[in-house]
């Protein structure tokens, strides 16, 4: 039993303990501490993050003559680090006072902790998978475990959860078909055999396999057009749960895609596949899918009036950046894509936790019913501010570094249109995160929020820790680029040449330490002038404010939050046509129509005839 | 209305001392110079005088070459331009706006109406002399003054600021009772603005013997305090 087995065992024990003791009062803290132990166990194999060799699990099973194996490499370690980190932050957040209130409102905090720890365990199993069969088993475990987390809240969450599982099952079928074809072609489920045989695959095989796998794994990632389930399913999960899901859950799709499509089938072959009657290769097509995955969900987020939905829609959009970076295949772009997985996870965890803190105090996430909370919850505001700066990709937070790498790579590789597409996506991100912070924390405090206070420290501490991580990894991205480089090496990419402050290449360098120095130097000079050179400051009342000379009163709202960006929507509002929703609902109608027709045929028309037809067709299918 | 006329009272003027050291006031003079050269102007366009401002601001006469720019909020503005007759309803807003400006602040009354009511002398609804309600640094008379006159007036104001003579904003704090009395006379005793002028007078250390008086007592008795809204952790 080696260190990897220890990690998986601790993870299993965590899930079991929190499952069995889910009614106990202290189970939240117990789970959080056990997750910390998992984290330490993960750190004990941290050599993987610094270019260490693959660790094979000692557990080997054979099912129906097929060996199942598990192993950890740099990529698995990188994703596991984010998984356990996100789970720790969410679990500590949920363990303390938040749980009491959640319980009072009819929730079961122990069940939430159990669902999270189960998710962590299943994700680790998926990340550790060493062949296609164990990958598929891990994949299904992750799918069902995340369903448990999604339907916890009941009500509308159950509907979203069911919608998710329909998508996930369809995706799993697609993956299963892909694995079936591979088994047919190679006679084995092992990664090595697939990698060896992949060079002999015909173009048709490459196209079919990559489409099957990308569709299957893309469902989990929320890749266009399989994204419709995600926002609602993540947003309706109880607060810390959605922070965890939002941070890492859909990245499992990316991980599996990286392993199977990028590493084993080989993305290089996709460049060679030209799509007839276009100028595009298969990879270009995927890049455009990634670009639209950035743009459409981001601009959908812009229209959301629920903070949780807004963030969840961003989760889909940011997945597009990761995909885009990795599809670029060069050291800079793939490093940007992988780094964005980490950066985005930290940002999303901070943002969801901050919004959960707001909901904890105000009982609403409706952006039209909030405002002015900065005076009441300044530290939560700070966390949200750090989070949105990171999510929008603005220095000095970490999101800037990964997006910079992706932009840089798009320019170096000579893809100006895709570059513009990603920039349009970033514009949407900036606009919508501004809406988020403006409508919740800035502007006029509502009368009913006059007496609320900052959230307790048990909730603040995890938020502040995550916010600190966002800043530190933005200030010194080299800390994460270490792990990214070994993940790149595990994937077979050329690792990026990096420094502590960023990257140094012949075609453009980035040094965040300098950048932060200049930025804070500028702020420092301003602050010195403002606080040192001016008169004594006098704080004025919020209603002592200018609105064209009006006398302001607290009962009238001057906070401009409803129909935010009306001017922008005047120009782009007509482009929101709900095409994907229409597509989804027409698919549903077709399926239900077909099933209805079959039922009529079977039940009332000619049952015997129908039975005969079915039997003949089945016989033909199986024998012929 | 109070009988005292404050328009000629000089406030807080330091006696002009013979300067032995030529560098004694270098820093103060530098601050005054800089202050006079960068001014943001909030134009409260009340009457017909407003129409003369666009040419004064735009390319023909170009106020900005003097360092004067329009500003949208009183918090960042230095000059308040009142460009015409001030009805009583408007005057409330003018006072509110004036009080929200950060010191040092300067008021310019443009057109005859701000000086003496002008052609609205007989109107029941118009304030006649602006400087009974807020201290005015400079009047630009005329019906209406042309942009050249406006620019000329602004240059005079700049000269006054440079020599540290434009101190009317101090007058408002030092003689708040007088101004408040006139305001109460016009608007009734329930009159109040959100800005805490007495508190500001203390902050600026401009609280004089005439800051408080009978009128501020009335204000105290009717004032509904705004609820405190501090930063708290």
Can you describe what's shown?
The complex is a heterodimer of chains A (624) and B (233). Chain A is mainly alpha-helical and 624 residues long. Among the domains of chain A are: 279-576, no CATH class; 583-623. Helix content of chain A is 70%, strand content 3%. Chain A has 25 helices and seven strands. In chain A, the strands form three sheets. Chain A has a three-stranded antiparallel sheet. In chain A, a hairpin with a 2-residue loop joins strand 6 and strand 7. In chain A, helix 5 (109-127) packs antiparallel against helix 6 (132-150) and helix 16 (331-362) packs antiparallel against helix 18 (398-412). Chain A starts with a helix and ends with a helix. The model of chain A has no long low-confidence stretch (mean pLDDT 89). Chain B is α/β, with parallel strands linked by helices and 233 residues long. Chain B folds into two domains: 26-165, Rossmann fold, CATH 3.40.50; 167-225, no CATH class. Chain B is built from nine helices and seven strands, in the order H-E-H-E-E-E-H-E-H-E-E-H-H-H-H-H. Chain B has helices at residues 26-37, 53-57, 88-100, 112-116, 147-162, 168-174, 176-187, 197-203, 214-222; strands at residues 39-44, 68-70, 79-82, 86-87, 106-110, 126-127, 138-140. In chain B, the strands form two sheets. In chain B, strands 2-1-3-5-7 form a five-stranded parallel sheet. Chain B has a two-stranded antiparallel ribbon with strand order 4-6. In chain B, strand 1 (39-44), helix 2 (53-57) and strand 2 form a beta-alpha-beta unit. The radius of gyration of chain B is 18 Å and the shape is globular. The A-B interface holds A 375-376, 378-379, 445, 450, 453-454, 535-536, 538-546, 549-552, 554 and B 44, 73-75, 92-94, 96-97, 100, 193-196, 199-200, 203-204, 226-233.
């Amino acid at each position: 039993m080696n260190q990897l087995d220890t990690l998986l065992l601790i993870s299993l024990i965590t899930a079991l303990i929190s499952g069995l003791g889910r009614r106990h009062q202290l189970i939240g803290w117990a789970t959080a501490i056990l997750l910390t132990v998992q984290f330490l166990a993960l750190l004990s194999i941290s050599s993987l993050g610094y270019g260490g060799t693959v660790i094979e699990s000692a557990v080997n099973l054979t099912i129906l003559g097929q060996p199942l194996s598990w192993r950890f490499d740099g990529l698995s370690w990188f994703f596991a680090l984010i998984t356990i980190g996100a789970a720790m932050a969410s679990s500590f957040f949920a363990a303390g006072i938040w749980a009491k209130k959640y319980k009072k409102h009819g929730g079961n905090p122990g069940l939430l902790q159990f669902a999270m720890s189960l998710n962590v365990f299943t994700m680790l199993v998926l990340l550790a998978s060493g062949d296609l069969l164990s990958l598929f088993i891990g994949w299904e475990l992750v799918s069902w475990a995340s369903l448990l987390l999604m339907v916890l809240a009941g009500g509308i969450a159950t509907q979203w959860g069911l919608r998710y599982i329909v998508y996930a099952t369809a995706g799993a079928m697609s993956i299963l078909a892909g694995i079936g074809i591979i088994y047919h072609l190679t006679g084995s489920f092992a990664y090595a055999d697939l990698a060896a045989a992949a060079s002999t695959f015909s173009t048709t095989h490459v196209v079919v396999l990559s489409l099957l796998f990308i569709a299957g794994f893309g469902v989990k990632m929320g890749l266009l057009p399989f994204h419709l389930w995600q926002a609602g399913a993540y947003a309706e999960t109880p607060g810390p749960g959605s922070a965890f899901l939002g941070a890492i859950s859909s990245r499992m799709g990316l991980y599996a895609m990286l392993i199977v499509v990028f590493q084993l089938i080989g993305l290089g072959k996709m460049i060679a596949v030209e799509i007839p009657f276009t100028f595009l290769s298969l990879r270009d097509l995927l890049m455009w899918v990634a670009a639209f995955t950035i743009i459409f969900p981001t601009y959908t987020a812009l229209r959301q009036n629920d903070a949780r939905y807004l963030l969840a829609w961003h989760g889909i959009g940011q997945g597009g950046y990761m995909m885009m970076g990795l599809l670029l295949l060069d050291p800079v772009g793939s490093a940007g894509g992988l780094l964005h997985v980490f950066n985005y996870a930290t940002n999303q965890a901070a943002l969801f936790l901050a919004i959960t803190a707001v909901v904890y105090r105000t009982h609403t996430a409706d952006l039209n019913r909030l405002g002015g909370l900065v005076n009441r919850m300044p530290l939560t505001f700070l966390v949200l501010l750090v989070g949105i700066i990171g999510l929008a990709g603005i220095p000095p937070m970490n999101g800037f570094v990964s997006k910079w790498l992706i932009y840089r790579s798009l320019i170096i590789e000579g893809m100006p249109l895709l570059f513009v597409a990603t920039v349009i996506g970033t514009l949407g991100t900036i606009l919508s995160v501004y809406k988020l912070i403006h409508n919740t924390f800035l502007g006029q405090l509502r009368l009913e929020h006059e007496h609320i206070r900052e959230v307790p420290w048990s909730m603040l501490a995890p938020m502040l820790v995550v916010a600190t991580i966002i800043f530190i990894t933005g200030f010194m991205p080299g800390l994460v680029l270490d792990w990214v480089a070994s993940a790149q090496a595990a994937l077979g990419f050329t690792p990026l040449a990096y420094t502590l402050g960023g990257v140094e290449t012949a075609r453009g360098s980035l040094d965040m330490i300098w950048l932060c120095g200049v930025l804070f130097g500028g702020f420092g000079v301003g602050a010195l002038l403002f606080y040192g050179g001016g008169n004594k400051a006098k704080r004025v009342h919020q209603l002592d404010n200018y609105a064209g000379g009006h006398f302001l009163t607290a009962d009238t709202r001057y906070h401009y939050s409803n129909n935010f960006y009306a001017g922008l929507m005047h120009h782009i509002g007509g482009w929101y046509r709900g095409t994907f929703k229409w597509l989804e609902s027409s698919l549903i109608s077709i399926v239900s129509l077909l099933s209805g027709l079959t039922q009529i045929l079977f039940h009332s028309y000619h049952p015997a005839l129908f039975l005969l037809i079915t039997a003949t067709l089945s016989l033909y299918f199986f024998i012929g | 209305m109070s009988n005292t006329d404050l328009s000629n009272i000089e406030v807080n003027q330091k006696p002009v001392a013979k300067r032995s050291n030529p560098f004694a006031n270098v820093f103060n003079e530098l601050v005054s110079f800089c202050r006079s050269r960068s001014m943001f102007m909030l134009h409260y366009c009340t009457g017909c005088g407003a129409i003369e401002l666009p040419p004064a601001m735009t390319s023909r006469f170009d106020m900005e070459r003097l360092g004067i720019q329009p500003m949208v909020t009183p918090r960042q503005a230095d000059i308040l331009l009142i460009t015409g007759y001030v009805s009583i309803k408007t005057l409330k807003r003018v006072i509110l706006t004036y009080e929200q400006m950060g010191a040092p602040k300067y008021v310019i009354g443009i057109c005859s109406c701000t000086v003496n009511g002008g052609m609205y002398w007989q109107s029941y609804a118009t304030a006649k002399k602006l400087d009974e309600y807020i201290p005015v640094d400079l009047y630009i008379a005329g019906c209406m003054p042309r942009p050249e006159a406006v620019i000329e007036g602004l240059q005079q104001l700049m000269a006054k600021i440079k020599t540290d003579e434009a101190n009317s904003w101090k007058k408002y704090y030092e003689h708040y009772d007088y101004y408040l009395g006139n305001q109460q006379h016009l608007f009734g005793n329930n009159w109040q603005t959100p800005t805490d002028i007495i508190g500001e007078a203390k902050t600026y250390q401009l609280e004089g013997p005439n800051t408080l008086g009978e009128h501020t007592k009335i204000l105290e008795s009717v004032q509904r305090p705004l609820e405190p809204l501090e930063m708290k952790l």
